[in-house]
Amino acid sequence: xxDSNDTDFEEYLKSxxxxxxxxxxxxxxxxxxxxxxxxxxxAIAAGMAIVLTGVVVSHTRTVRGxxxxxxxxxxxxxxxxxxxxxxxxxxxxxxTAPSIGAAxxxxxxxxxxxxxxxxxxxxxxxxxxxxxxx
Amino acid sequence: xxxxxxxxxxxKNIAGxxxxxxxxxxxxxxxxxxxxDRDTDEVGRLYDRYxxxxxxxxxxxxxxxxxxxxxxxxxFLKLIEGGGIRKASDQKAFLFTCVRNxxxxxxxxxxxxxxxxxxxxxxxxxxRDYPAERRLRxxxxxxxxxxxxxxxxxxxxxxxxAEIGEILSTSANTAASRYRYALAKLRRSVSxxxxxxxxxx
Lengths: 134, 201
Prior knowledge:
CATH superfamily of the domain at 121-201 in chain B: Winged helix-like DNA-binding domain superfamily/Winged helix DNA-binding domain
Radius of gyration of chain B: 26 Å
CATH topology of the domain at 121-201 in chain B: Arc Repressor Mutant, subunit A
Oligomer: heterodimer
Shape of chain A: rod-shaped
Distance between the termini of chain A: 116 Å
Mean pLDDT of chain A: 75
Low-confidence stretches of chain B: none
Helix content of chain A: 55-70%
Largest sheet of chain A: none
Radius of gyration of chain A: 44 Å
Number of strands of chain B: 1
Structural class of chain A: mainly alpha
Largest sheet of chain B: none
Strand content of chain A: under 5%
Helix content of chain B: over 70%
CATH architecture of the domain at 121-201 in chain B: Orthogonal Bundle
Strand content of chain B: under 5%
């Protein structure tokens, strides 16, 4: 139990206020604020990058899809339909072909791709012309 | 047509989700920065409120006023950079504990006992009574360290004996007992030196 003298003495002690400390160093605060600004700008930049990437990727996919659809339709239209394989058409191939082997090759491996333009040669044609000796 | 519309819709949904995610990330980061800003303000407020008592406590523990100032600054700068002040249930007791640890660690590194500076003021005396400030300071320095800690924490830190017991890892009763001894010694010491305040004898 405290007596009145103790209380008075405590009041006397409290009349001495402790000396205030110096202000906190500003350098650390400035560094902290610069880190904060960098964090905000980094976050905004990252967000913008993600949004832009999303937009670009979705746009690219859309364009490619349209191109594929149009190309597919065009190639299907450009190629003439193959005549059905009948006895008559087989006889025709045999009559016009230089040999039976050539007729069979033409029948089995007829290319479905469009022929190259007149001023250009296909890679197979170029290789045929080359005389390589093994 | 329906399939293509559905695909277009799903693409729009994916792009929308990405945008939402980006917005969410930005919001979360901004919120974290905002929290850090509030923490800094909170630490600044605590420094203004308890800085003087903490500096007195550090000076009474370590002796060297400059090192005491550094210890207090170190504690607050760590709180600003690392946060965590909001997690403390009793912020005042937490701060005194941090300062005590910082001073004791510093003393351990220096490997020597506290030697008090004669000329450094610890108090702003009432009515500029600097001789009284010196008497009080010398009387405090003459106390045993455990009693000096308790009397500073209770009188100028305004902590309860239970809080002091937690800080010093002892019981509240022990803290109160130390306080009574310290107060009696302090009163005797201050009164004897100048025949001051006969009512306190």
